[in-house]
Specification:
This protein has 27 helices and 35 strands. By secondary structure, the protein is of the alpha+beta class. The chain folds into 6 domains: about 120 residues, no CATH class; about 130 residues, no CATH class; about 80 residues, no CATH class; about 140 residues, no CATH class; about 200 residues, no CATH class; about 190 residues, Jelly Rolls. This is Heterokaryon incompatibility (Het-6OR allele).
């Protein structure tokens, strides 16, 4: 049936018929791919293996069906067999390109050549047709729901990227107000899980099939849904945080969390982004994609070799590999070869002759060679060691014969929050101060399986703490406490309390939208620890009574030792505090003031800790899977892989954004991982070191060189407050499964007495709190490198913070194309004027609350940091003695006041207020400072006006600001007055506003 082999200028197409015996009968024909007489054709995109994971599973991987191909019996996988009937029914006279049939899979040379022209095959198809598997009612409903969400998905996603901040919409009931969508029902949420659990979405080859297609549609019975709608919906559910709400709804309804783990929602969203890349100037995303850092700060115009055209391919491949994690492929070589079509597209766009030789598909090479060739190309093209950010724990590596510095890309891996992708606003890590290789001349060399580089020995691992799994499942923190006994009370590298430096290291000092982390506090970490230990105590009591609890408390000597060394500074509870808790819950007999609490007191205690538990765990779940905290012999805190051992060395390596853990093997080193550390500045002297590959023959000698970085023996290099980690594998799935089993055990436990009932309630409450986060943890934000880990925080997560802190995660600055100012603002010097009366309550801040406090209510005062830089000022007012008062000293704050206004749609309004600069001398160095008025309804925003505060300002004078604007369709609306500096706050300024008036024009 394959009479002759074909090369790069021809391909086969197949016609599909169904004979009288209901057997597919197909005919192959060869065509010249560039011929003007080439017929129109569609390309089929599908998965070779069974289309669904788990239930429903229609057949096994080994099952086959038989068709007629050019008159001969030919075995195909059942999923393709089913698809042929749908294709014949939907497109009876169309020719198709189908990989399993149109390429002779037994001819490795032909397979290599055809894989190399995938861009031309899929780009030349009139339509790419996607087959997810046999239709079902639930699958059809999932497509319908995705189409409904897609109406706003793309616009909402672009707004999130522009704002560089996650909206954390974790509750489905918020969908109406936030996005104008009816909340998902249980059946709709369940159907979405069914849709995104289709194996097709997680298949490696799908990436280029989608990215290179002109028109691509998913077919299901009579439905045909554009992939762009499905991809945008997936990205929206992920970035908005609604995936957390879906998980909570389904878990509460009794759905098995393991079904949620099989979702490919994160992969689907990322595939959509690659499609937008490949569209180039045709993409609606072209203006926002540059706002995402996909490659740990590496860009084409800053790398030494990448500035030349031939280096572009390596840079793009690095970008793809750091972005596209967690995709399945039966042949690990396809991790690279499955992107060949996109690479060919890049070559064509940049006018290059061909793909670099070592990246060209060649199935005669083994997996280790293919991965090694790709790593070598990337390192040499970029002139950077940023690729090391995707190296994973050696205990989890699967490819034999692979050098320790070459990434082994597994089908399941946790993302790397430090290596990217991240919002550009987070900044980049550059521990060696040499990401900009063009400026610093990074010195490394690839010699076959040996990577020779220059580095600085920072220290050796002295002690290790527990990994996340023992913390969650067993409330075990004794090793962490014993490790911290070695720490000084003040962490001298950052001048922070050691407890704060410790937890910041564990979360890589970021809270998804901000680095360093702004929202969490030591109290968050302490409450999380206490709740996890409380669950362990509850479980001990259920299994062994009070004696079991006493035995557990006796294992916590290290926590008491830590408290004795650092009184009232420890992040861990003492046995005395835990004993008091045990008495309150009846786990131990009460002594003195330690008495049994009422059920109301018990519930109140749980609720006071629960939100902090969820928030801190949501952060740790993105950073601590397969990792554990450590301390070095020099006192540095670090977050390292589980396989790290005491004595392993931590190095700063020229050209690598983050520190490396390495294991000495004589004159050689084996790379363990990139790690997160907590430090500030230190002086570096770079020396030669050598990373050798497995199976390297002969001695591995370092390069002898005394030249230090930037040609000196010492240079200042910044080790960021948090740095990169490495990528994990399926263990993130295992950890989530472990957590889900805890939930199952807690929910299934039964109460036989009042005391046992409260015990079960405690255990269940804690477990369910963790479970609701863990359900979607591995599918999160851009950075949480599997999860962008859906470790989103909710606005009711952190009880220890103020309401202003929590509200700082709201979206504030998105503008739409319609955002216009109908009339330019005017200013006039103050004259006597009466207080306003209009749409706002308490417009002059003269009405106290029920306690007699002038807090501005119902105005809400909020800020992006704490303490708030906005307050109600007494003794300063325009017509009275109070005003809203901003004290701006840095760009970190974006303080605002806001109040809901009952606007009507498409009406003209007049808005005015009086403003006052309370500085004695003219502020200097202000850049990008302004007061903006934002009109928000749901997810839509307008900016009716902006007061520029970067010019020469009138001091100690009340000045009036007036604007007119059309409400358009944003009614009613939250009216926000926000003060911020996007460039520099210079010497700072103090601003008061008063008498805010909003009236409808007649």
């Amino acid at each position: 049936m394959y009479s002759q082999s074909i090369g790069t200028e021809s391909f086969r197409l197949v016609s599909v018929t169904i004979d009288s015996n209901r057997q597919p009968s197909l005919t192959l024909q060869k065509h010249e791919i560039s011929s003007p007489t080439r017929p129109e054709y569609y390309a089929l995109s599908y998965t070779w293996n069974p289309p669904y994971m788990g239930d429903p599973a229609y057949y096994e991987d080994t099952d086959v069906r038989y068709i007629l191909l050019n008159g001969s019996k030919f075995a195909v996988k059942p999923n393709l067999y089913d698809a042929l009937f749908q294709l014949h029914h939907s497109y009876p006279r169309m020719l198709f390109w189908i990989d399993a049939l149109c390429i002779n899979q037994n001819d490795l040379h032909e397979r290599k050549l055809q894989v190399g022209i995938m861009d031309r095959i899929f780009g030349g198809a009139s339509r790419v047709v996607v087959w997810l598997g046999k239709p079902s009612d639930k699958l059809e409903l999932g497509l319908q729901v995705a189409e409904r969400i897609a109406v706003i998905a793309s616009t909402a996603c672009k707004a999130i990227v522009r704002e560089q901040r996650y909206p954390h919409t974790h509750h489905l009931e918020e969908m109406k107000e936030a996005y104008g969508l009816d909340p998902l029902s249980f059946n709709e949420a369940d159907a979405l899980v069914t849709l995104f659990s289709c194996r097709w979405f997680g298949r490696q080859w799908v990436i280029q099939e989608v990215a290179l297609a002109g028109q691509i549609d998913i077919i299901c019975n009579g439905m045909s849904v554009p992939f762009d709608k499905i991809g945008s919906t997936a990205l929206f559910l992920h970035l908005s945080g609604l995936l957390v709400g879906i998980g909570n709804l389904l878990v509460a309804g009794g759905r098995d969390m393991r079904l949620l783990e099989d979702m490919h929602l994160m992969q689907t969203g990322r595939t959509q982004i690659v499609r937008e890349w490949c569209k180039g100037d045709r993409s609606e995303w072209r203006d926002v994609l540059p706002l995402i850092d996909f490659t740990a700060g590496i860009v084409e115009n800053t790398v030494a070799v990448g500035e030349r055209k031939e280096g572009i391919v390596g840079v793009v491949l690095l970008k793809l590999l750091m972005w596209l994690v967690g995709f399945d492929c039966g042949d690990r070589r396809d991790t690279i070869y499955g992107l060949a079509g996109i690479i060919s597209h890049v070559v064509s766009v940049h006018g290059l002759d061909s793909i670099p030789q070592r990246l060209q598909p060649d199935y005669r090479l083994n997996t280790a060679t293919v991965l090694h060739n790709a790593a070598t190309e990337i390192l040499q093209a970029t002139g950077s060691l940023a690729l090391l950010g995707v190296v994973k724990d050696p205990a989890l590596r699967e490819t034999e014969g692979l050098p320790s510095w070459v990434p082994d890309y597994p089908p399941r891996m946790a993302l790397n929050p430090m290596a990217g992708p991240n919002f550009k606003s987070l900044g980049k890590f550059d521990a060696s101060k040499s990401i900009n290789t063009a400026a610093y001349g990074v010195d490394f060399h690839v010699d076959d399986k040996v990577l020779r580089a220059r580095g600085f020995l920072l220290g050796r691992v002295k002690a290790l703490g527990e990994s996340l799994q023992p913390m969650v499942s067993g409330g075990n923190f004794a090793q962490c406490a014993a490790m911290l006994v070695h720490a000084e009370e003040t962490y001298r590298f950052t001048n922070q309390a050691f407890a704060e430096a410790f937890w910041r290291t564990m979360v890589f000092d970021q809270d998804l939208s901000d680095r360093p982390a702004k929202i969490p506090t030591t109290k968050h970490f302490q409450d999380m620890v206490l709740m996890m230990m409380a669950k362990r105590i509850s479980d001990e009591f259920k299994s062994g009574g009070s004696e079991g609890v006493k035995a557990f408390l006796q294992t916590l000597e290290a926590m008491d030792t830590l408290e004795a060394k650092h009184p009232k500074q420890s992040p861990f509870p003492t046995t005395k505090l835990l004993a008091s808790f045990c008495s309150g819950y009846g786990f131990l007999p009460g002594n003195g003031d330690d008495k049994l609490w009422s059920s109301e007191q018990q519930m109140a205690w749980m609720e006071s800790k629960k939100k902090n538990l969820v928030f801190m765990f949501s952060l740790l779940s993105t950073t601590l899977f397969n990792r554990r905290p450590a301390i070095t012999d020099g006192g540095y805190f670090a977050c390292v892989f589980d396989s790290t051992m005491v004595g392993d060395e931590i190095w700063i390596v020229s050209g690598c954004p983050t520190p490396l853990v390495m294991r000495s093997k004589g004159q050689q080193y084996s790379l363990i991982e990139l790690i997160a550390m907590k430090a500030t500045r230190f002086s570096l002297t770079f020396v030669a070191l050598t990373l050798c590959g497995s199976g390297h023959a002969g001695p591995c000698k370092p390069i002898l060189s005394s030249t230090a970085l930037v040609g000196t023996t010492s240079t200042e290099a910044t080790l960021s407050g948090s740095t990169e980690t490495s990528i994990a594998t399926s263990s993130d799935q295992a950890s989530t499964t472990d957590i889900s089993s805890i939930v199952s055990e807690s929910v299934s436990s039964t109460a036989t007495s009042e005391l046992e009932s409260s015990t079960t309630a405690l255990s269940s409450a804690i477990s369910e709190s963790i479970a609701s986060t863990a359900t979607t943890t591995t599918d999160s934000q851009f950075s949480s490198t599997t999860e962008l880990s859906t470790s989103f925080i909710t606005t009711d997560t952190a009880t220890a913070t103020t309401s202003a802190e929590l509200s700082s995660i709201e979206t504030l600055t998105t503008t739409t194309a319609e955002a216009t100012t109908s009339d330019a603002p005017t200013t006039t010097t103050t004259t006597e004027e009466s207080a306003p009366s209009g749409f706002f309550a308490n417009p002059s801040f003269e009405v106290p609350n029920s306690l007699g406090v002038y807090d501005g209510s119902p105005w809400a005062l909020q800020d992006s940091s704490f303490p708030l830089s906005v307050s109600i000022k007494s003794g300063l007012g325009h017509t009275g003695s109070h005003s809203a008062y901003w004290s701006v000293t840095s760009t970190d704050t974006s303080a605002r006041i806001q109040q809901m206004a009952a606007l009507e749609a498409n009406q003209m309004y007049s808005l005015s207020f009086w403003w006052y600069i309370d500085n004695d001398v003219q502020p200097q160095g202000l850049n990008g400072c302004s007061l903006s008025i934002i009109q928000r309804s749901g997810r839509s925003n307008l900016i009716p006006g902006t007061l520029d505060l970067s010019t020469t300002l009138p001091l100690k004078t009340w000045t009036k600001y007036d604007i007119s604007f059309n409400s358009q369709t944003l009614a009613p609306a939250m009216m926000t007055f926000i003060v911020s500096c996007s460039g520099s706050a210079g010497t700072g300024f103090k601003l008061a506003i008063d008498d805010i008036d909003l009236v409808k024009q007649s």
